[in-house]
Amino acid sequence: MVKSLYMALILTLVAFTALPVKAEDYKALEWTDLLPEEDLKKMEQLPEISHEGGEAPAGGALNQAFGNQDPAAAAWNEVLMSANVKAELNNQKVKVPGFIVPVEYDADQNVTAFFLVPYFGACIHVPPPPPNQIIFVTNKQKIKGDMIYSPFWISGTLTTETMSHDLAKSAYSMKADKIEEYTYE
């Protein structure tokens, strides 16, 4: 009896130590964590946009921006076009919250590749964020197309590989290990 209890304990310990370690070691990132220091500083120093007062006069800053004559418009353009990345994030296991913008579907209309963006409607209803604020994600987990209205946590291996599509250009890519509905942590 004692011998059988002892053997059961040993077998339990052997089985316990043989269990695979869960890959819950994802570093949670905020979107600003993807920005190199110099891009973050530029973004923080951008002038505010005034939405008051109707149309700008023909010689106004908004109209001059198209000729790159306005330094504030040039600063905005530089930030919005940046594809600078943090090299130290390459091949890191991370977890990022965001919204899904579908790029590819399978035969059953499941989303198989998408852009992960920091806010709803990016790339579709409004101009896309800068490339270093977009992550191109490939996944094997089935995501129905009607689920794109909710935010998600995407966990996987982040790389500094760029991807261009008609909708946008991303400066980061990720192979998703896990996709789950967003909950504030």
Task: Give a verbal description of the structure.
Residues 1-23 form the signal peptide. This is DUF3299 domain-containing protein. Keywords: Signal. The protein is α+β, with helices and mostly antiparallel strands and 185 residues long. It has one domain (27-43, 58-181): Beta Barrel (OB fold (Dihydrolipoamide Acetyltransferase, E2P)). Helices cover 22% and strands 30% of the residues. It has helices at 2-18, 37-44, 61-65, 71-80, and strands spanning 27-28, 92-105, 110-117, 135-144, 152-159, 163-164, 169-170, 172-181. Strand 2 (92-105) and strand 3 form a beta hairpin. The radius of gyration is 23 Å and the shape is globular.
Question: Quick summary of this structure?
Answer:
The chain has 185 residues and is an alpha+beta fold.
The backbone outline, from C-alpha atoms, is globular
Query: Spans of 5+ residues with little confidence (pLDDT < 50)?
Result: 1-23
What count of domains describes the coordinates?
1
Number of helices: 4
- Main beta sheet strand tally, sense and closure: 5 strands, mixed, barrel
Q: Sketch the topology as an H/E string, one letter per element.
A: HEHHHEEEEEEE
| Mean pLDDT over all positions | 78
Radius of gyration: 23 Å
Q: Report, as a whole number of angstroms, the end-to-end distance.
A: 48 Å
Fraction of residues in H or I helices:
10-25%
- CATH H-level name... which superfamily? Protein of unknown function (DUF3299)
CATH topology: OB fold (Dihydrolipoamide Acetyltransferase, E2P)
| Tally of strands | 8
